[in-house]
Amino acid sequence: MTTDKLNASLIEVMKKQVTDKGQLAATLMDILCIGKEAVYRHLRGEVPFTLNEAFIIAHKMGISLDRLVGLNSEVSAIFDLNFINYKEPVETYVSAIDYTLNIIKAVSCKPDSRLDSASNMIPQSLYLKYDVLAKFRLFKWMYQHEKVNVGKDFASFHLPERVKTYHKEYVRGVHNFKTVNYIWDNLMISYLVSDIKYFESIHLLGKEEIGLLKEEILALLDEMELYASTGRHPTGNKVNIYISNINFEATYNYVEARDFQLSMIRLYAINSILSLDQTVCRHQKEWIESLRKFSTMISESGEMQRIQFFKKQREIVGQL
């Protein structure tokens, strides 16, 4: 089903539920927090609803997106390809962060909200509050694409202040989940250190920048160890941390609350594909659960394993 057809189907179902056009517009203004003219542009089909807007509407109005698109089989599903426009990489990166942040804000406030994350790289919810680390991740992605001009080196690349603001909001949003379950690839710090060493070898990272990165990684490890020892985020919400004894090939996230499921698979370093499809979400949840079986819990319990893990990570960072 094309975006236009999906959008038209959503509008049709909403009009059947709320037959009064003025009342429907008022309802959508309240749900989406947008103005009257923007709502009417959506209802006229001039501007399609985003996946984020569609899921918020579906959740508030009790609409099944699966039934809406006629996907009840095990072999078909809708994914949102949340790709970045190379011509405006920073702008569309902000849009991608804001897109996911809106979902996090809408779901994390629910009393049974839960985030499961199996990561082969440091999760965004941990490193985004560290400006130099966040800048390095974006710089690395942009440097990989010849279509993107990132300047001569890391020092000449700057993150706008509003990007940093979005990053910190993202981290706070994740802390609001009532339960977060992290499964970390035991090599994720090694991967990061290897990346930094490579960029140093091609003269894009200087000694000063490496020193700043090293300082932030050590601060991040301190923060991670605190979460592991207390089993709590700063908000007081529960966080469970596992270290995988096997390596995995991608980063998988699963979000759940009453009457809502979302799966996210990280692609191309900073992109994600998202799906609200129930079958996809079920498989995503089961896959993360299967990785947990090969993992050791280090939050609250597992004190010896926790101490050994963080000691080893600091030794790896010491190689910088």
Task: Give a summary of the structure in a few sentences.
The protein is an alpha+beta fold and 320 residues long. It has helices spanning 3-17, 21-32, 36-43, 51-61, 65-69, 89-108, 124-127, 131-144, 161-175, 188-201, 207-230, 278-293, 303-317, and strands at 80-82, 114-119, 179-185, 238-244, 252-257, 260-267, 271-275, 295-297.
Topology:
Elements: H1 3-17, H2 21-32, H3 36-43, H4 51-61, H5 65-69, E1 80-82, H6 89-108, E2 114-119, H7 124-127, H8 131-144, H9 161-175, E3 179-185, H10 188-201, H11 207-230, E4 238-244, E5 252-257, E6 260-267, E7 271-275, H12 278-293, E8 295-297, H13 303-317
Parallel strand pairs: 2-3, 3-4
Antiparallel strand pairs: 1-7, 2-5, 4-8, 5-6, 6-7
Helix pairs in contact: 2-3, 6-9, 11-13
Describe the 3D structure.
The structure is a single chain. The protein contains 13 helices and eight strands. It has 320 residues and is an alpha+beta fold. The longest helix is centred in the last third of the chain and has 24 residues. It is globular and about 65 Å long.
